Amino acid sequence: MFPYIPVTPEDEKKMLDSIGLNSLDDLFSDIPESIKLKRSLNLPEGLSELELSKYLDTLANKNLSTSELTCFLGAGAYDHYIPALIKHIVSKSEFYTAYTPYQAEISQGTLQCIFEYQSMICELTGLDAANASMYDGATACTEAALMAVDSTRKRKILVSKTVHPETRKVLETYTKFKDIELVEIGIADGVTDLEKLTSAIDNKTAGVILQNPNFFGIIEDVKEVEKVTHDNKALLIMSVDPISLGILKSPGELGADIAVGEGQSLGNNMSFGGPYVGFMATKAKLMRKMPGRIVGQTQDLDGKRGFVLTLQAREQHIRREKATSNICSNEALNALTAAIYLTTMGKKGIKEVAYQSTQKAHYAFNKITKSGKFKPLFNKPFFKEFAVVSEKEPAIINDELLKNKILGGYPLGKNYAPYKNALLFCVTEKRTAQEIDKLVSVMEGV
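Above: the chain sequence. Below: its structure as tokens.
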């Protein structure tokens, strides 16, 4: 890799001369000889630019994207259509290279875009205030749990096992060393077990976390969970698929105190896992406990409308260790992408995407289960994901699908031992009847 390093031996000598040293070893003279490495690092020789380019191409070709495969895999990352307009706007240099807009007087464009994003998230979730984005859906959910603890001064969080397994892992990581009791609530026929929730909740509970639609794609009985939660003076945290809000009631309508979710499906590519964007919205009374940046609307000295970062006293760069949260960066570019997507699609567009996704998912479900080789894992209303079970191992089915350039379902046995022979399929508006029929044909032939 020497050709890529701009420091020549002559440059190195000049730098050493300027600080009065004879060799690079003199820089490390304070390190005892007994702990210095006496051999070369176990690394291969450097490559030329041509060799490196070919090597990276070889590595990249091992990956298969959804431009080459028909995708029926969801479980948190969704293959929705992204209008060409979005990439064009996001790629504009003033957006693509913009830094955190601390200096409002030179960042009005970026600040207004973030403000519009927040406004749309509020409208989508039916809540009063939203922040300028989080790392991803899992982080947003976990930060909401910490927000509930801080708001109620209680230290117990209940989370349904129907919440995404990876989100629960992040929750576990966050709460483990914060003296917060994390209790998982069991599953009853694909949804949150209300009896177990009722017996687990008490006056020490800060919040209840529910995902709707849940990890299995099923629509939860949110109103019952909301009643149990608020009867015990706890906060209801809802993790939602933003596309589902095109046809389902918003978290605000269902009584949620905090709404969070993964915004990848709002115009962001799946990108082999990231970067993504978490969104968070809450009721006005909890706004000062919300983590992350918030953009507000104000007036300048001339009475003209302007935008600024507001309520900054909550944040790490002001309060340091006393900050509401120590989450520091956000995902402003991905949030901008989500805002452009929502603007491009509009209310009717989001509703149409949600409607087509659920219609096509039910078409696929009916076709797959019709033959009798695959049975529904649960008989519950679902949005765009559903689980089926068969006598065949999921790996065998998915391998056969992959041979036919189809990306199959998520094997639920990875996270739920009782469902070891179940596959979770996702169908978005991108899928056609022909693609679904091919999926069914290959599955039946296994």
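The chain has a mean pLDDT of 93.
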